[in-house]
Design a protein that fits this description.
Length: about 450
Amino acid sequence: MNKPETRILTQIGSRRESKLRLRWIVTLCSLPFFGMVAAFGTAPDTAFSFVPTRAVVESLDLALQAQPADSDQAFWREERFGRGDTIADLLARLGVNDEEARAFVARVKAERSIQLLRPGTTVQARTADDGTLLALRYITDKGRLIGFDKLGAEFRAVEQQLALVPQQQMKSGEIRSSLFAATDAAGLSDNVAVQLADIFAGDVDFHRDLRRGDKFTVIYEMFYHEGRAIKSGRLLAAEFINQGRSYRAVWYADSEGKGGYYTPEGKNLRKAFLRSPLEFSRISSGFAMRFHPILREWRAHKGIDYAAPTGTQVKVTADGVVEAIGRQSGYGNFIVVKHHGGFSTYYAHLSRFAEGLRNGTRVHQGDVIGRVGQTGWATGPHLHYEFRVNNEVRNPLTVALPAALPIPAQQLAAFGKVATPLATELNLLRDTNLALLE
Ligand SMILES: [Zn+2]
């Protein structure tokens, strides 16, 4: 905490207020430090406040007047702003109630804080118990902290350039209930968890395939500002052991800066089809466990059912062209996408379609084509997904699918220089952890 803040805090007088002061020191410290809120707890000495001193002073005063003494739990949530997301979607996931979100978007649409927000950015929001948005923060790729605080009825912009220094970090964990529970336990941010799921999305369906006892190891960038961890960056290498089978990945960018994930042997991890058509997030990943089991009995048509909250993003699993989009009594709102090689995929019970999608629209793997719903014959919100080969329903797991191109032969030497040390570190970490578990 910097000096001016401390000075302001110590101006508060009486005994009762000094108790309040202590609370507020903790609260201030645990406010806007990126990536750490959910991941690393809120110990004051690991925390860092970026709010300009002036804004802190004012929000502090307001807070002391407006809030009861025991409402000192600053409630920050973190979500990734995805491709195809609207600001309203993002705010809803961040726990900002709809009414407030709509009014908010109308007010600040033209502001820099919203215009600079790019897909893939992790955004943190602080809300009141009733869902009122109190503050929002994100850090741009160039290390600019941007956001605002709500002061009374107004929003005050916050902006600061951070001198971010990257460092490699390594963590590992074991899945007992869910991936997010495991990454929380390992002190990893949601950003890292989602990247892990994205990297292996061609091999593992993170909604259905995870088992207790699955293990992961990750090597990733962590950015520091003045010695404090601020935000996690790119995953550099990872191993995921799913049902006893090991999948490994290293990040490699060629001389032109174009990068991707490969096995340590140089095979491309990108597959023609994603294993799951559902966006992987903290909310969607935990939903199936709370879902009514009656859905499991409805399997006459041999699709795969994904229970997920209404509004969860549905992604097209491979490049293709929309062959049909419309409504049927059984499927409800549905989309059929035709792919190369006689493959087609079906997405049913949608609550809505992506804007502008119609017959003949070209789509790319991972594009958001609609949202989960329960239209048609559905007893709860879920996505019904079918995978067909020459119009026959097939289990995608049993169909051999082509992968993207491996590392070209002339780049294998350069690739090895990056991949070998990372693979060695992964091995070392795995062996260390196995020894600890024994
Ligand atoms: Zn179904």
